[in-house]
Amino acid sequence: MSETTTAAASGGGVTYQSVDSSYFEKRGLRRYAGVASLWALGVGAVISGHFSGWNFGLGVGGWGGMLIATVFIAIMYLGLTFSIAEMSPALPHTGAAYSFARSTMGPWGGFITGLCENVEYVITPAVIVFFIGSYLGSIFGTSESFQPVYWIGGYIVFVGLNVVGVELSFKVTLVVTLLALACLVGFWFSAIPNMDFTRWALNIGVGADGAPVELAEGGGSFLPFGLHGALAAMPFAVWLFLAIEQLPLAAEESVDPKRDMPRGIILGIITLIISAFMILLLNASIAKGAFALSTSGEPLLDGFRAIYGDGIAKILALIAVIGLIASFHTIIFAQGRQIYSLSRAGYFPRALSITHGTRKTPHLAMVAGAVVALIVMCVIWYGVANSAAIIGGTLLNMAVFGAMISYIMQALSFILLRKKFPQIARPYKSPFGVVGAVLTMLIALVTIYFQLSDPVYRAGVIGVAIWFAVGIIYFALVGRHKLVLSPEEEFARSKGTAEYKSL
């Protein structure tokens, strides 16, 4: 039977096309995830940020500035995750952020939100596989020119694991997340007897030119760069929590999303907040201290080296790679579901939402996301600068910028959903309510401002702008005329009266 038949109802500048049952039969998913799997999916997606990335904030804010930045960002993520914990069981669709915005801001609002999240979930695994390549290059002594081989190999292995089946995906996610947390806990217990907070965490001063300088004996200011430095460190603190919001993308593969989704995401953010503050305190409080960590590409490994020496550095590096693998694997999962949901509804080319005939995984969406990420990485690597610092910084900044806009849109969706759809069933209600959503928006806006104030971040913003331009042109010319009444679209068009039906 043909997938597409005649044009259906139009409105808001978009056109829906009728599809027969075979359309959704080719796009089926399989339910498997419970609370433990969802917790692992959320924590695993973020955990690499506790191994590397966050530490660059020490160079702009000092330890105290980074602490304040982490508190602000933790508040933003609490507001966001509790808002999502309310919205996701009320709208248990794979679309997640796109679905929330589509229901409250129409097709264009849904598409723009989905496009922001698309940048985050395509680029974030690229950042992580870049760090994996850096670690593996150090372990095996390969040249910098060999890095793209690690990137391609990483994508082949972990896209492959995600394609095999949702059961294997979640089992691998649980195992690598537990191993990554075990690595972090092992570091905490190793660091506590060796910590000297005043000597090492406070060893950053300010030079005559305003740049950070090392204080040989420590004892520096809590806020060497003042409150401005603390605010400037916020984009780096994001890396301690980035991607926890991906959990609703697994809604249609969750056994009971209305019960398990809020539990999984709340347990996840609590785990990450504890780990974030532990790593911030302990990693900086041992030799070589905050100053050295502020420019390190492998801060956790540097901490292990300070405690155990260089003799077992390669073994320790392999341990550190576990955390990167946990996030890489889980965000590839999210990337596939995010592309799948927009494609199934017609916003992206529909072929990308076809799932594997027997595995019932969105294999085409995951492969497409991987190919786009590798193209972006290679363009920067070969066309802009063959420099680890530039490619890592540019990719990270693109991911964070896309995420911040997505958070603003999701928080706004929460507020509008309460206003426009007060009648829908809400199995869970956020204790922070509208106040939490407003704080999320305000902190995200401040973070964006300080991203734009940093010249390194501007390159990433330009990249995101190009991404948005291509996506919007496609949707304006093609996508908006090919929409399909997927579960997200059915709910939105019925103004919340349509009962969710699993496909």
Automatic annotation (TrEMBL):
Keywords: Membrane, Transmembrane, Transmembrane helix. GO terms for cellular component: membrane. Residues 49-458 form the Amino acid permease/ SLC12A domain. It comes from Hylemonella gracilis ATCC 19624. This is Amino acid permease-associated region. It is a multi-pass membrane protein. The keyword Membrane applies. Signal peptide: none annotated. InterPro entries: AA-permease/SLC12A_dom, APC_superfamily. It is found in: Membrane. GO terms for biological process: transmembrane transport. The chain crosses the membrane at residues 32-51, 63-85, 121-142, 148-165, 172-192, 222-244, 265-291, 311-334, 364-384, 390-409, 430-450, 456-477.
